[in-house]
Amino acid sequence: MPKGAKYGGRTKGTPNKTTEKAKELFNAIMSRQIDKMEVALDEIYEDSKTRYIDSITKLAQYFLPKKTDITSDGESLTGFSVEITKDADKDKTK
Predict the structure, then answer these.
(1) What distance in Å separates the CA atoms of residue 10 and residue 2, rounded to the nearest whole number?
(2) What's the confidence (pLDDT) of residue 53?
(3) Residues with Cβ < 8 Å from 52, sequence gap 6 or more?
(4) If pLDDT is split at 50, 70 and 90, which confidence band does 7 have?
């Protein structure tokens, strides 16, 4: 048998039905908890702004995709500059 050869099982790209059902169940449960989560976050905010920010940060990773560097191929970026120019529209409003 050649190394890395796969025989039997799910073909590539076929969704796992058990995982899919588990995700659906979890989403259904969590959708009923939104009001409670808002109340809990409000309580945390009143108690400690730092804990509130920490809680929001921890929750965000489950709702927002993490950014991936697609421009540097993992190498450090050096030798770049940032140019700051006046915003012409801001000058008109003064």
Answers:
(1) 19
(2) 95
(3) 41, 44, 45
(4) confident
